[in-house]
Amino acid sequence: MRPDTPAENVDHNAEAARLERTADRYPEDAEALLLQAAAHLELAGDRPAASSLYDRLLSSSQGLENPHLVRALKAANLWEYGHEAEARAIIEGVRVAAPRDPAPWVIVAEALESHDELEQAQETFTEGALVLLTDVAEPPYSTHPLLFGRHRVRRMLGLAHDDWDVLADTLHTSPVSLDELHDPKRVWSLGSENPAELEAEISRLRAELGTFREALSRPFPVAVLHWPTSELTELVDAYPSLSSEYPSHEEHLATIEASLRELSASGTANLGIVTGTVPSYEAFAASEGMSPAEAALLPQYATTLAARGRAVEWPPQRGTACWCGSGRVYGECHGE
Questions:
Q1: What is the pLDDT of residues 94-105, one digit of tens each?
Q2: 8 Å CB contact between 257 and 268
Q3: CA 17 to mean position of chain CA atoms
Q4: Is the distance from CB of 263 to CB of 271 less than 8 angstroms?
Q5: What is the tens place of the pLDDT at every residue in 123-133?
Q6: pLDDT computed for residue 197 by the predictor
Q7: Mind giving me the DSSP string for 5-70?
């Protein structure tokens, strides 16, 4: 989500302006685009302008897919330029809301950690783990930073390992253990004149860099296209040839769930669902120089939506609403 290219190699203000213009052209992607623009502004050092973008999103009448993420990012940004009291209030609001997405938990906990509020950071990481991972047999990839951050802070606090720390160790795939990476005494080794200690620290840094690169290079989800009832009706009415792809909405929903389960059973990881709209699909078809009636265009459209960050993780987190929009919990709907 956040660009990590050094500021000297990128005109972050210009990139933020470009993203804002793109958001005006594609309002359906405005949330993702403006979050990227705000990140560029933070990297450029213009934190007040970044806060203005977060406020713009939060005041939008369209509604946000992840308002807790926007609030978490706003809080972290505010604290960095002296608005500690407001940042703390927002962080407390995020914690009380108990979002089902791990990203807001990680962001607010790391904000506390970076300002030496280690006890509060540890409590926040733990609250997030309780909300998202209680009775979960296999933690989704998106929750790994939550467990790793919790392990790091608890190591700095000198707390004994618990079951979640052991789980974090198990999930960590780097050749250097989490205990080594999170060793509070590592900073002292940087001033050592002992070649063996310096070499060990270089190995740890390389392992950390490898972990970061793996996370950054993780591809966007393999996504299946979902049409809400009204959109599917409009699509088939406008392009009758697509009725062979979508005999009915009920069959469409059943096919989505069956396809995802089949992909999961075959070992495909990082699965998701993207929701289409007819205007967006027609615009995509025009950009490809093809007719929207071409069924072969549908998977390309799904891939493009996923690449834009529009995919929702499948299967949904325990206790969250079903992806189909029924309003029922996934476990009682398509997750049965």
A1: 999 999 999 999
A2: no
A3: 23
A4: yes
A5: 999 999 999 99
A6: 62
A7: S-GGGS-HHHHHHHHHHHHHH-GGGHHHHHHHHHHHHHHTT-HHHHHHHHHHHHT-TT--S-HHHH
